[in-house]
Amino acid sequence: MTSFRAIRIEKSSENYSTDYVDMTDGDLMAGDVEVDVLFSAINYKDGLAITGKGPVVRRFPMIPGVDLAGRVTRSERAEFAPGDIVVATGCGVGEAHYGGFAQRARLSGDWLVKLPDALSPARAMTVGTAGLTAIFCVLALEAHGLSPAAGLAVVSGASGGVGSFAVALLAKAGWRVAAITGSAREADYLRAIGAAEILAREDFSAPGKALQTQRFAAGIDTVGGVTLANILSQTQFDGAVAACGNVGGMDLPASVAPFILRGVALLGVESVRPRLALRRDAWARIATDLDPEMIDAMCEVIPFDQALERSRAIVTGKIRGRVVIEMP
Hints:
- This protein is α/β, with parallel strands linked by helices.
- It contains nine helices and 15 strands.
- It folds into two domains: about 5-115 and about 300-325, Medium-chain alcohol dehydrogenases, catalytic domain (Quinone Oxidoreductase, Chain A, domain 1, Alpha-Beta Complex), CATH 3.90.180.10; about 130-270, Rossmann fold, CATH 3.40.50.
- Helix 1 (about 45-50) packs across helix 9 (about 305-315), helix 2 packs across helix 3 and helix 2 packs across helix 7.
- The protein is globular, with a radius of gyration of 20 Å.
């Protein structure tokens, strides 16, 4: 048996605890591909799982870490061979199946994508679920038939993880991008990654009219709630908004007016289900459309022995950008 280090969450009727532990291959869950984890990343969802502040974990014990990149060591699947570099995000990893905060993982091949040669494992984890969700939104807008010639694209929560990648990916695809942010200090950063206009969050945070002045041909919304309602009300004829977040609330205080009077489409985007063909296309697009220097600028790499402390910090808002964990 190969031994390895992991972060494991335990829960009993009286206690919720998280700590570093020693495990062996025999402790791993079922799967047809085994991986030496090279890098993982700290997502907000991982912080909720580790602190118990959100109902993320669906079975106990659990190894958190919804993202991982690693090297295949054993495979029962023809499409994977020892030595292949693979990436996994979502698919219940770190929630219902042991995740990336460990040196070893055993996973279903249905959750894995071979990493394009142009992306290193560390950069793939800087992108992680956040970047994958952003490119899913871009692909949804393109599948709807929208192109940069249609006009201005707007991104809410633009300085966050998904929002930042959305700005960069839309700009690379040729869109003129308006970035909504709550902090004027982020303006230079947003312009550096591709934003052409900076819009104030407070202009979208109060309820507005059912139909407002048409401003946007397309949108990527990471916020939900009133912000999404206002974006829909300002979307032009035959435009579309891809929605992927709910930090502003689960309710949508909007009317049907944008949909039935302007033909606006609301495109729901989720990033958990496997959908391997879509994931392969998404990672290939990320590898060509994201500037490696921009990816590196968004990233801080930490050793595994700091992962627990930093995961607790993310839920208090003390982490900016992406924190990537390098496994020993």
